[in-house]
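Work Package 3 (structural annotation) set out to generate three-dimensional models for the target panel prioritized at the project kickoff. During this period the team completed the workflow that converts sequence records into discrete structure tokens, so that structures can be stored uniformly alongside our sequence database. As a representative example, we reproduce one entry of 252 residues exactly as it appears in the project archive.
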Amino acid sequence: MSSDLFDLSGEVAIVTGAGRGIGEGIAKVLADYGASVVCAARRTEEVERVASEIVAANGKAIACTADVTNAADLNRLATSAIDEFGQLDMWVTNAGVSAVQAPLLELSSEEWDNTLALNLTAVWEATRVAAQYMEGKGRILNISSIAAEDVIEGSGHYAAAKSGLNMITRTFSKELGSSIRVNAIMPGFVPTEIMMTALNITNEQLPMVEKSLNLPSGRLGTPQDLGAAALYLLAPASEWVTGQVIRISGGM
């Protein structure tokens, strides 16, 4: 098998939510395989750390502070990629979460609106921006969640947003056709800081969680697992793959 199947040399990626967790894992894997990466998140110190670690490992990266719910920030991410690296080839819409757990009947309308704005509307806006700036064979990868398919009580608002994300992934893949491939991955249980806070789980509880899930893979996921999946869906190896939403969950 040709090593070129996973070679991203000379290509440029934007990764949102890249300051920690899954976004950090994806940004570092893409850089390891040759991509220049624009690491974006709201917390400046976090994306600066990730970008500096990529550069220290002989990769190419810059940090950009951005709020993905702000259309001007999304456009600035695209222009920053082009100004710094000359082009834009890949966009990973990873930023997204809801720290609030509540039954739908008790959920505030403000939290509903905020969750959809971050997890769904921002993805729609980012895709429209990416389509303006990508030339040639662009790729968009949306980070969804198994909550889009599995009922998780207290997370109905988040699940609704991620279900919508799955559908716009498929719709954009049709509408953008051969110019831009659009796919999504649905992570399972990856014990990032954000997930553990949202589910109120401590590090000491992780062995118990791992045992209770009884995953066929035998372990919980890592950001690097998601980075490997992202690599495949963004690399030449998946040139014939678009409009797909894939569970990356250890068999969950």
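The CA atoms of residues 58 and 81 lie 18 Å apart.
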